[in-house]
């Protein structure tokens, strides 16, 4: 009888066997599940997304997935956390204009074209009628992303490119808010000239001291 080989059991030739991370999970299997949930959400939508389908796509056992995550929403939340940190960590070139233009362009692309952006939009929608999910999104993922969004501004203040008394939280809202409004409310496109324009307007309003 053929044995089902789980992703976490496989070791390539010449590769060290991964014995799991601090949660007792194989990192390769974890990554396979998180990649699978991103892809499947785009293909089948939230309503038809199932633990069984995620496990099959990832090549792991269904009970393995249930042991690590109580629900598909928990998988989506973990995938979102990884994706935000990987795709929306701003660059540090030493030039505020360049860093903000690159970061806002990446934000627009993430929200409009990336599978991970579809996860974010889906979770925002579900959070409208799930207070616990809304709390997790705000207190963990959105708060962490807000800290990342502040980084180019904090560095610019330290370099003297921005006034020392600039309200950084309001600045993040001024820069990122219009992008989210277009993506989530009006559905208007977010081309590079739009995000670059946000940066130019912000810099005109906040000249160096």
UniProtKB/TrEMBL annotation:
- Pfam families the UniProt entry points to: TetR_C_11, TetR_N
Which keywords appear in this protein's UniProt record, sorted alphabetically?
DNA-binding, Transcription, Transcription regulation
Q: Which residues form the HTH tetR-type domain?
A: 27-87
Positions of the DNA-binding region: 50-69
Q: Does the keyword Transcription apply?
A: yes
Report the GO molecular function annotations. DNA-binding transcription factor activity; transcription cis-regulatory region binding
InterPro entries xref list: Homeodomain-like_sf (IPR009057), HTH-type_TetR-like_transc_reg (IPR050109), HTH_TetR (IPR001647), Tet_transcr_reg_TetR-rel_C_sf (IPR036271), TetR_C (IPR011075)
What domain of life does the UniProt record list for this protein's source? Bacteria
Q: Where is this region: Disordered?
A: 1-24
Name of this protein = DNA-binding transcriptional regulator, AcrR family
């Amino acid at each position: 009888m053929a044995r089902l080989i789980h992703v976490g059991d496989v070791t390539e030739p010449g590769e060290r066997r991964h014995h799991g991370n601090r949660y007792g999970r194989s990192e390769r299997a974890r990554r396979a599940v998180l990649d699978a949930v991103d892809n499947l959400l785009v293909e089948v939508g939230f309503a038809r997304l199932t633990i069984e389908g995620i496990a099959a796509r990832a090549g792991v056992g269904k009970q393995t997935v249930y042991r690590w995550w109580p629900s598909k929403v928990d998988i989506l939340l973990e995938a979102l956390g990884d994706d935000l940190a990987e795709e929306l960590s701003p660059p540090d070139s030493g030039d505020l204009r360049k860093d903000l233009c690159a970061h806002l362009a990446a934000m627009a692309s993430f929200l409009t074209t990336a599978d991970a952006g579809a996860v974010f939009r889906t979770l925002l929608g579900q959070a409208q009628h799930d207070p616990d999910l809304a709390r997790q999104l705000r207190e963990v993922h959105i708060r962490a992303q807000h800290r990342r969004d502040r980084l180019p501004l904090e560095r610019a203040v330290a370099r003297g490119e921005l006034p020392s008394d600039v309200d950084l939280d309001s600045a993040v809202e001024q820069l990122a808010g219009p992008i989210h409004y277009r993506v989530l409310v009006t559905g208007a496109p977010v081309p590079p000239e739009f995000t670059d324009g946000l940066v130019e307007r912000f810099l005109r309003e906040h000249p160096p001291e």
